[in-house]
Amino acid sequence: MEHTSTALDIGALNEKIEKESAFVDILTMEMNKVIVGQKHMIERLLIGLLGQGHILLEGVPGLAKTLAINTLSKAVQGSFSRVQFTPDLLPADVVGTLIYNMKESDFSIKKGPIFANFVLADEINRAPAKVQSALLEAMQEKQVTIGDTTFKLDRPFLVMATQNPIEQEGTYPLPEAQVDRFMLKTVIKYPKLEDEQLIIRQNLKGGFEQVNSVVTLEQILRAQTAAREVYMDEKIEKYILDIIFATRNPENYRLPELKDLISVGASPRGSINLAIAAKCYAFIKRRGYVVPEDVRAVVHDILRHRIGITYEAEAENITSEDIINKIVNVIEVP
Asked: Which of 5, 56, 59, 81 has a 20 to 30 Å separation from 301 between CA atoms?
């Protein structure tokens, strides 16, 4: 009897998810009016938004990173703010500060750009550690304290930080422990030739199409709850744990050659985020249950910044990507 009730539950859940995720296609279509090609980036933005996480985007300048989050905030009826990180930025420039009001001889609070649904932290590695930690604390706690007052941040709340991989001059690389706060680290590649041809045409035409807000914040909040309800079988949980544990003790998973290449494995935050991201990916694909392909689709974005590599790996030009590929190819798929 239990078996049939589970089957019924999955059926009902599938219907519910299909209904709740209907907006994904509309939202993607709206963003595609302006963003050409970058399907991977748009999907990752949605995973971050649905999974209540934050995204670190790495790519050379000019790949529409800023444009993407700006477009997303227009398509969702959300507020958007952008902080261009520079070496002289102060924490108060991000979170806000107390201002002395001469007339009333009292302090009033001026809120910073962090008080928005979509916050773009442009070139996060250009700001000093104090500013980075102020931003990361707000991301983690979802609240900000100015003076004696603590403010809850707006929901949904998505921080998209960008960093440029080519310039290291005058930058403050994010410490490993802080990079871990980002749910996803997505690397953006150059567009395909035919996409770039379209990009040229669009720009020569002078201006983009108007992006309309097609999704409400309430729909996003409902979808965040629904995405967590996506069914994940115990076999999939075990699969996720095997992948994570293989980053810590590769020799137990027939991968002894990785032992000297990994300096630190993924933390429990890695397993939690891999599970959440797999559920969100299934949600975007309008399914009420997680399949192994969902895990494999998001595993690079979740783990690439959570695996520390040794000097030996660097000397052999082996990246965390290569390590993830090896692990995913060896771990048995349920």
From this structure: 81
**Residues with Cβ within 8 Å of residue 198, at least 6 apart in sequence:** 36, 37
pLDDT in tens, 246-276: 999 989 988 888 888 888 888 899 999 999 9
Residue 145 lies in a domain: yes
- Which CATH number characterizes residue 273's domain? 1.10.8.80
Instruction: Establish whether the linkage from the previous residue to 156 is cis, with ω within 30° of 0.
Output: yes
**Closest C-alpha among 188, 156, 183 to residue 275:** 183
Q: Which residues, other chains included, contact 30 with Cβ-Cβ below 8 Å and sequence gap of 6+? A: 71, 75, 211, 212, 214
- How does pLDDT run across 206-223, given as a tens digit for each residue? 766 788 888 888 888 899
The DSSP bridge partners found for residue 120 are 82, 160
List for the chain the helix, strand, coil content (%; round to 5).
Answer: 50, 15, 35
- The verdict on residue 310 lying in a domain is yes
In this structure, is residue 109 part of a structural domain? yes
Instruction: Compute CA distances 300 → 163, 169, 292, whole Å.
Output: 18, 27, 14
Q: Could you write out the DSSP letters of every residue in 37-98?
A: S-HHHHHHHHHHHHTT--EEEE--TTSSHHHHHHHHHHHBT--EEEEE--TT--HHHHHEEE
The whole-model pTM stands at 0.88
Contacts of 45 (CB under 8 A, 6+ apart): 55, 68, 69, 72, 158, 160
183-211 per-residue burial string, b: 16 or more CB within 10 A, e: under 16:
bbbbbbeebeeeeeeeeeeeeeeeeeeeb
